[in-house]
Amino acid sequence: MSEVIAKLQEDHRRMEVILGVLDRKIANLTEGNNLNLFMIRTILDYIVNFPQKCHHPIENFLLRSLTRRNPQAGAISAEILNEHEMLANIVTRFVHDVECIEPGAPILKDELVATLNAYEDLLVQHMQKEEEFFFPAAEEYLIQADWDVIETRMRDKGDPVFGREADREYRALHKVIIEWGGK
Asked: Which CDD domains does this one have (predicted)?
């Protein structure tokens, strides 16, 4: 397995863990407890920005490369790119709902839970599709030169899209959320 695919799969596992923390925090709300808005906003920062800055640019590069190498295998590209946009729209709606919460005001729990469930359902299905179809197709059809380009860019700290600095920052944020979320 390539270093790139291993990183993308690790990203998926990290997102699943973050979703588990978010689920627990929203479950606390539905059980009548107060919502820790700072914690929710921190999680949302991760959910919004990590895919956009660190994960999807790599997938998008692979999708373009796959489409060039094998247009039939690359047919999944449009579907995955569309899902990236759908996920961003749903999480934007969730962020908006959270930002509208006023301290001490009643919270529309059902709306928050419905939006979160829609996001999670699509994200889980999306990650499964990538792991079952897209990643294996990339490994089958991409040539070493394709992998070399992206792996070189991933190691370049100065690269604004593929550089490791943003990824390192989000790994640190992930650790803080997990530690804090367990309390």
From this structure: Hr-like
Say how many Å lie between the first and final Cα of the chain, rounded. Answer: 36
- Tokens 């606390």: give the residue: 28
Torsion 15-21-22-23 (CA) sign:
positive
> Could you read off the pLDDT of 85-119 as tens digits, one per residue?
999 999 998 888 888 776 666 666 778 888 889 99
Which residue reads 């803080």 in tokens? 176
Total domains present in the chain: 1
Q: Which domain holds residue 11?
A: 3-181
Residues 180, 156: Cα–Cα separation, whole Å: 31
Rounded Cα distance, 174 and 123, in Å: 18
| Interatomic CA distance for residues 66 and 143, integer angstroms | 10
**Cα separations in angstroms, 38 against 11, 69, 80, 101:** 23, 45, 31, 12
Assign residue 155 the CATH number of its domain. Answer: 1.20.120.520
Q: Is the dihedral of CA 19, 25, 26, 28 positive or negative?
A: positive
